[in-house]
Description:
This protein is of the alpha/beta class. It has one domain. It has helices at 9-13, 43-50, 64-69, 72-80, and strands at residues 23-26, 55-61, 85-88. A three-stranded parallel beta sheet has the order 1-2-3, covered by helices on one side. Strand 1 (23-26), helix 2 (43-50) and strand 2 form a beta-alpha-beta unit. Helix 2 packs parallel to helix 4. It is globular and about 45 Å long. The termini are far apart.
Amino acid sequence: MSRTCRHPFMLEASEAIGLEVLLMASSCVPASLLETAGAELTADDLGALARHPRVLGLAEVMNFPGVVLGDPAVARQAGAISGRVIDGHAPA
């Protein structure tokens, strides 16, 4: 069983600090299949985060080849945040 992010630390840690903290959910945990980040954010995790009122959208979609070529995993991530801002990286 993979380790997934079920308790968003930054949302919980900023809950009662007297400042409204808005976040973008990370799309790249881990950043690539060659890295280990200690956790994994799945499309299900992103869907849960998308329902939080302080999560504005999906941040740092760095897998532009996956977006352009229609990679199913990237499409599931984007679909999980459907209707919100999706930010990313692209060449030129």
